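Technical appendix A lists one of the benchmark inputs used to test multi-chain prediction within the project. The record comprises four sequence entries:
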Amino acid sequence: MVKTNIPDIVVSRLPLYLQTLNHLLREGKEVISSNELSQHVGIPAVQIRKDLSFFGGFGVKGKGYDIIHLIDNLRNILNLNQIWPMVIVGVGNLGQALIHYQGFARQGFEIALALDNNPKIIGTEIAGIVVQDVADMQAELDRSDIRIALLTVPANAAQSTAEALVANGIKAILNYAPIVLNLPDGVRVANIDPVLMLERLTYYLS
Amino acid sequence: MVKTNIPDIVVSRLPLYLQTLNHLLREGKEVISSNELSQHVGIPAVQIRKDLSFFGGFGVKGKGYDIIHLIDNLRNILNLNQIWPMVIVGVGNLGQALIHYQGFARQGFEIALALDNNPKIIGTEIAGIVVQDVADMQAELDRSDIRIALLTVPANAAQSTAEALVANGIKAILNYAPIVLNLPDGVRVANIDPVLMLERLTYYLS
DNA sequence: TAGATTGTTAATCGATTAACAATC
DNA sequence: TAGATTGTTAATCGATTAACAATC
């Protein structure tokens, strides 16, 4: 499927809409106007409508949006109507916390494989996952259809590990290492670095 | 100090420059051109120069930037020439992993206080920090000058906990809960939600 | 000096927002 | 129908980038 030309920044707001709509649905709400959604999500109503209009007309004029219907459409747009298996590489403190995190499974992301290079950690079971040797990455990935990786190795191992992942079919990496990864086009990388985010905050603190 | 009108998006790139410059310095490099920095950081050279020019002329024409000098200036701009004490609220798996994380201290962020409401966790020591009762938040924050919080409580407790933190002087929150916080102007919030980031990635996966 | 590279102005590009017709 | 709200066009705003003078 060829993607039409939707701005990345528009795509990046859709998950936020989806998250908030899920909350509202759980609270029993059924229909919502762009204006009310705007209050919850902190994004101007006109921008929400514009963003959605890239993909279709999901609302009813005079009424607003049927929440279930809109959730369903957003999930389709974001390819969330499937389980996404993931590999996590690096089972230290952070890696273990992520394996335990319930939020992934709730949204259809499943940590299907955990890899580490530490003999003390290989073979241990964490939340039902037995940690495998990172040396067996190729064999393990070959017999799976995992395309997403969580990268939680130390900074100095991040680049080479990422390259190995890509060589074995990984197409998207959520990178927790505090380093800029240099990877071929076509591989999507998102970075989570709390220190960088803190440094953005301290700028504004007097 | 009144901040002049620097675009947020410019500020948000500075920590990335700083991170990369620190790497380069550790590798023994002393001077770098915007072009070479561009390769490492993945941002166009002209944009790096433009960003920096909001704050001054840190380079030498014909030569480039003295790395130590530029790092020093960036640290000043971002208010990083001090230790920033932080409170973490919520000492579950993720909270514990963050307390253990060495990367904060390395960049001058110190978790000075850890709070939880679970009697089994209160009083335990993690990486040298004794977890306090969140009920004592006011007393604990009153006798500190903590202005930054890491929020790692469950989603349903995040909003009320954030409000309590703000009522006790917190000015910046790094929010790990998968929810949009609604807080008064003047409080800075940054969100870290791996699920939202994964959902941005799956959009592009066929 | 010649070459390299910065810092800045002006042009371009793209995103946000205002205005409003369409319509439930 | 009147009122409300969407979806879209056009205007505005702001960010990126091209061009280039300044200068080490």
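Residues 126 and 182 of chain A are 31 Å apart (CA to CA). Chain A touches chain B through 58 residues (CB under 8 Å). Comparable benchmark entries are summarised in Table A2.
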